[in-house]
Structures are given as structure tokens and as C-alpha cells.
Records
---
Amino acid sequence: MATAVAIAHPWLHPAPQRKSVFRLYRTSAGRWCVSSADGLTGGTFFDHDQAIRFARRESTGAPILVRRGDSAPRAAI
């Protein structure tokens, strides 16, 4: 009698991926800024689509979460 063996395939049950979180905002000069939640990665762009493309590229394939803000983050005093 043959027994069935369950084989785990990565495409059937993918490991949960960590989301990359980016903050997207527009400066008073009209440029788009994007920065990672940890503050280590970021850039300034003339075009909104270029800012989103940058965030996707920097996430290295992980899903991204973009938090949109109206202006630059304020420094805590």
C-alpha cells in the first residue's frame, strides 16, 4: 500500500513577506518626496509616478505601503 507524502511547495504557501513602508508628500516647491519609515532611504522627484517607482524599486519585490502626507514632516522640538 502506497502512502501519500505531502510536499510543501513555496508557491502554494508562500512565507509572509514584510511590507516596506514609505511616506510620500509634496513640498511647498511642488516636488514629490518619498522616504522609508526608518528614514534610511529617500529621494526628491519632480513627478509623482517617479516617486512611486522609486519606492517600488527600493522595496526589492516586497509589497509596499505608501502613506501620503500633505507636507514635509515636522521636526520634534
---
Amino acid sequence: MKLTLDIEHTVTERDGKTHFDPFETDNDLVMIGTLTDKGEEKLFTIYHNSVYGQPTETEGMHLINFDGAGVQELLDRATILIGHNIVHDLVWLWESGFSMMVLSLTPCLQSTYCNVDRSSRCR
């Protein structure tokens, strides 16, 4: 299955620089969006500064009822991953506990395609 993937995350500002990586302890994976080659679109919200659309009284991010198994199931079925800056997204997914084996990356003008190995898993 071809799977188009995009992630959203928080960033850390420090010393005049923006840090985008998952290795910053204050950065959080916020959302994962997917689209299959059959047109099935799913949005997985992980953290948000409101709960179910209502602003919260406390500051900070709140864990939403997150379906990590649903994301992993889509990754397990994928033979090709498609996404803008997919290497960045893969690092975030791996560091967030998801697993997949990437055989090759083929950059193109607007997206990158990943061939995914079904016979073995990372981590």
C-alpha cells in the first residue's frame, strides 16, 4: 500500500535558534496525518493545547486519547511512504516508538518516496 504521511510537532527556541528535532526534551509529536492509496484519510492527534476543542485552564500540552496502534498498523501495511521531508518525519516516528524498515529513499521535486521492507523491522 502507498501511504502518504505527514507529522506535526512542537519546536524549541533557544539561543536565537529553532530546534525541530525529537531529541529536544521540550519538543512533542502533536499530530500524524495519513492518506492511503485508496483515499482513506486519518488524522491522529496526540497532544494539543485544548481538549476536544475546548481551551484548558492549565497551560501546556495535554495528551489526547491517541491510537498509536492505528498508526503502527498503517505503517506495517505500507510498502511505499510518500511525504514532504519524509526523513525528518521518519526520525520523529522512530524516536516516538514506531517501527519500520526503509530500504531506499528517492527524492523528487515535491515529495520523497520510501520503499519499505516488510521482512524486518527497526528498533
---
Amino acid sequence: MKNIQIFIFSLFIFSCSSSKDMKPRTVEDYYVSTGVVKYFLSDIPAWASFNQKAGCFRNKNIRYFNIEALMKSYGLSYNQALQLQASFNEGLSEFIAGLDQGRSQTLKEEELLFYKVSEKISSKIIFFDPPVFERVNFVWLDEVLGDEKKEKKLKDFLNSSTMDLGVPVLVSFCMTRDEVEKKFPDLNTKMITAELFSIYDSKGKATPGFKFEVDQFFKPEQKLYFYTQKNLVPSDEFQGTFKALNY
């Protein structure tokens, strides 16, 4: 009898101590992923998130997608898959900016955003709407960053008569659209920014280096020009049929 009393007393002590150590659980603790996470590539470390030719680091963390998996699962074109990636990153950036200090987005919130953006793409609400003008003038933005003389030369060029021949499109491998708009608020042009680049090619195959395939967004009959202040043309990152010129 005495042994039974000791056993019951021990159970009582254990249950009391255990209840003190237990922490209240939130809804997120019980959340089961819908599987969207399989479309997210691993985050790139800050020290490795740069473009060597442009000579710039990406200051914002970009969630790159497994384009091959997206194309297969949702029947998306290469263009649509990249539009989804870009729109998701823009939406995620806006969402994080509205969070309380010290709080991070949850997996559930990211997955809800993914589905919301997917519906937008299906409704043809896209991140980058390519101009349909006969001539398009791509202008490399990264090469002028941090250099006042080069930045002035860029702005002068965008206001020159050359731009009367075609519509300008700024190109940045390192900056997001939001960053460009904040740094150059007076440059009211279309942009191809870091959110639209991928390690996947138009066939959905992963290849070395981030790239943007021009031919997947512009029509063959359009005349495409790529303007730079350098003699170096970033053909590995900006791929397709276009004529490179200096200004």
C-alpha cells in the first residue's frame, strides 16, 4: 500500500512539473503545408547574391522559384512562370513591410500569397507588360550605380532624341523594381528587374547563372537594342536577339 501511495505521489509531481514546462501552441504549430514549398528554391546567402559583370550586390532577398516544376505542375509557359515569381516577390516585399517589428512571415502566409498571385497571373494581371512598339531600347542600369557622372549621363540619354525612335526599358540584374523606383523616382519607364531573372532556361532546365531570355517576352518582328556605357555586353545574363550599342 505504501508503495502505491509513493507511485501516485510521483505521478502527481511529474504532471505538475511537465505542465509548467509546456508552452501554449499556436495555430501555426499545427499548420500542414499544401506543398507549395516545393516550388521555392533555397535562399541565396547575402555574400553570394551578386552579379560579377554588373559589379553589384542584391540588397533584397529574392525568393527564386523552381521554374521547371511550375511549368510542369501548372502548365505555365516560361513567361508566365517568371511573371509568377516576380509578382510573388513584389507581394512578399509589400507584406513584410507591413509586419510588426521583429515578426517574420509564416509558411502559411507565403503559401496564401502564392495562390493569390497565381490567380492574378491566370487573369493576365502580370508584373512586366512588354511594350509592343516596333523598336525597344534596353538600357543597362546597374553599370551607373554609385557614379554620379554616369547616372547623369544615363538620365540625359533617356531624354535624348534616340529615345524618340523607340520605347526605353531599364534593365537591372541586382535591383528590384521597388528599389529602382525609390532610387530613381523621376525615371518613369518600364523595367526588367532582378525578380524576373532565373537559373532556368525557357525549356525549364537549370543552367549556370541567372538570365533573362528576351525572345520569350518580345516578338520576333520587334527591333531590340541594348544600350550600355561600357564595351562589355552582359550576353550571358541578357540572352536573345538584339543589337548592342554604346551611348
---
Amino acid sequence: MEIIYAPGTTVLILITIFVTFYSFFNHKILYRLCLEPSEIITKKRFWQFFTYPFICGNITSLVINCAAIWFFGFALESYMVSVTHFWGHLYFGYYFGFGAVISALLNFLVRRKDTNFILAGSESIALGCALFMLFFDPRVTFYFYFLDEGIPGLIIVGVYALYVVIYGLIKHRGLKDLSPLYIILYTILVAYFFYPATIADVMHWLNN
């Protein structure tokens, strides 16, 4: 699979790496780009709805999430391009962007009075890519050089989703970041209203 088939995924990763590394050396930028509901209200930092997905809190988070974005985003964008050709790149960008903003708005509404709540959302990008990938191709299987047999995508996505939830619980010391839940609901609703055949395919696959 050539890199040209997933330019959207590549751009997302490059932006995340650049913005995150830049914020490591400039904490003022870090706090201006992360999602802080109280700051949006008091200082009118509305750009945070769009910038928070590109921030990672540390190197470990950056490596894991960029690997996940590449892994799932590459598969999702390539699949969309194979079905809708050039428009697949635009659909991929739409699903990512709209999902990230919706998640930010919901977090903002729920945590607008919490002055200690700060959110960096690259995990949500990767999780959204993973879930959409499953909905569009529930039978997808991933193959690795060091394994003789492939691993079902459902297992890999489940493991990553568990990581995202546990990481969020540890980072926020409790169930404060509801982004994974918002992303899951967003994915299901988009699939239900715009791709009902996909829902039927997933249910048929699960029942068999």
C-alpha cells in the first residue's frame, strides 16, 4: 500500500508531531492549544475546538497515538479511496474534523465550569478512525510480519479502545474525559443515518 493513498492520514500525523514537539518547548502554546472550557469562556479561545486534537501530553502518548492514527487512519482512508476514489480523502477529513469538533463541544458543555479540566485529544482521532474502519469493513484483518496468521480488526480496535479508556482514567484521575464515549456515539449515529447498510452488515457479521 503506497503512502499516496492516505495523504490525509499522513498530514494529520505530521501536524500532530510538529504541534506537540513545539508545545513541549513552549508551555504557553501548550495551554493555549489544549481544550480548556473555562478559558474558552473567559478568554474567548474558540480555536481550541479545532487545535486540541493535535496535542499529546508526553512522548509516550505521541508515539502510541501517532502509530494508532497511522494504523487505523491509513486503513480507513485507503478503503474510502478504493470505494469513492478522490472523494474518499475528503470524506476521511470530514469524519475526522466533524467528530473532533463535536467531541470538543460536548466536553465544553459538560466541563465549562471546571477550571481544572484540560484536554488534549489525539487519542480521540485514532479511536474515531478505528471505529469507522470497523463499521465500513467489519471483517478487516491485520497481518504482521512476525505472525503467521492475521488478527481480526475487532480485537485490535478493542484493545486500543481499552487503552484509551484506561489512559483517560489515569490521566484525569477519574471519569472526567468523556471523549471516547462521544466518539463512539458519533460513529454509531453517522453509520446509522448515512450508512444503514453498513449497520446491517455489521449485525449480520456479529450474528454469524
